[in-house]
Amino acid sequence: MTVNLLDFSPNGLIRFCEALGEKPFRAKQLARWIHQFGESDFSRMTDLARAFREKLAGGAVVRPPQLLSDKTAADGTRKWLLEVGTGNAIESVFIPETGRGTLCVSSQVGCALACQFCSTGRQGFNRDLSVAEIIGQLWWANKALGRDPKGERIISNVVLMGMGEPLLNFENVVAALEIMLDDNAYGLSRRRVTVSTSGIVPAIEELQRRCPVALAVSLHAPNDTLRDELMPVNRKYPLKELMAACRRYVKDAPRDFITFEYVMLDGVNDTPAHARELVRLTRDVPCKFNLIPFNPFPDSGFARSAPDAIRRFQGVLMEEGIVATVRRTRGDDIDAACGQLAGQVAPRAHKSQRTKMTEVTR
Ligand code: SAH
Ligand code: SF4
């Protein structure tokens, strides 16, 4: 049986090499070839003994998802479309900013959680991505972008904010996180790898135990009545439990705050009264807010809040001493959007109506 080495966590790769009769440091050399140099041909891994290379070639491959397209926007944002079988594709997006570069990665094809304002949620769930498909997004982007002239990695941050709910594909996501953090692979700091979740309470606790990284929680409503409606997952894990999980997470986490994401929906969750309610809700949770202007899609039934409404909302939070940023639109000309990444290779209807990728402004 041929195994795909991109499916192995750092420890898994060590065990695999041991089973071939190799010392652990060989696994580290191999990881550097695979992840840092983006090499998939064992015969080019010149500092590995020939016998080891031959053993690898006999039973293993380095197989990332197939690359379907690679587009760069005028402002430097870049998007890769990767094939994940049976007409499905996933997108990952790179957002360059001064002093950092962020890759947005998907964890599932579709999503089962059916948040009303999310086009991935409207598509329904197709399947979990494998470890190779999750880390393959970083593998391609890293191979394409490499390092800057000073030898620093261009990708300094990864956010799991693409398609899917990362904490419902837990084991594969944890293995991919371990590869991202591994010094022989991508060497990212725990503070610069962010898992975004709709609020799967038991999995938040499990993440803290297994692989603590920065945490973003999609809040989107200040009370259970509205959140139940917008995000059905709230009926299972209501706000009181979610806030308690956030408090526990932040006590012992790489960053000392939770990022709350809040999509701004015109006339639905965007009044100053909602903002005041949010302040009360999050009083005991060290946090920052990231306000996301809604990205419309066909038949969504929602509209983006007016810029004035967003500013007022942000103002209420700031007056209460809560840091709140607004994501701004970027990458218009390559048709990539926050919470709206492609699920299909086949042309979608109304493609031109899809809106734009966004980024965090500070
Ligand atoms: N499932 C995870 C991560 C993926 S979604 C989660 O829900 O957190 C990444 C972010 O994009 C979430 O905060 C999500 O609520 C937001 N989002 C979804 N649809 C959106 C839309 N149409 N416009 C703006 N943001 C959206
Ligand atoms: Fe799934 Fe996140 Fe979209 Fe909700 S917002 S449907 S959890 S991807």
β-sheet strand percentage: 15-25%
- What is the global morphology? elongated
Main sheet: strand order: 3-4-5-6-9-10-11-12-13-14-15
The structural class is alpha/beta
Bound molecules: S-adenosyl-L-homocysteine, iron/sulfur cluster
Named at the architecture level, the CATH assignment of the largest domain is: Alpha-Beta Barrel
- The Cα radius of gyration reads 21 Å
End-to-end separation: 49 Å
Number of domains: 2
Number of helices: 12
Mean pLDDT: 91
Number of strands: 15
**CATH homolog superfamily of the largest domain:** Aldolase class I
Question: Helix coverage percent of residues?
Answer: 25-40%
String of helices and strands: EHHHEEEEEEHEHEHEHEHHHEHEHEE
* Low-pLDDT residue spans: 343-362
Topology (elements, then pairings):
Blueprint: E1 3-4, H1 10-19, H2 24-36, H3 50-59, E2 60-61, E3 67-72, E4 78-83, E5 89-97, E6 100-104, E7 108-110, H4 119-123, E8 125-128, H5 131-145, E9 157-160, H6 170-181, E10 193-197, H7 201-210, E11 214-218, H8 224-230, H9 233-236, H10 239-251, E12 258-264, H11 272-281, E13 287-293, H12 307-319, E14 324-330, E15 357-360
Parallel strand pairs: 1-2, 6-9, 9-10, 10-11, 11-12, 12-13, 13-14
Antiparallel strand pairs: 3-4, 4-5, 5-6, 7-8, 14-15
Helix pairs in contact: 1-2, 5-6, 7-10, 11-12
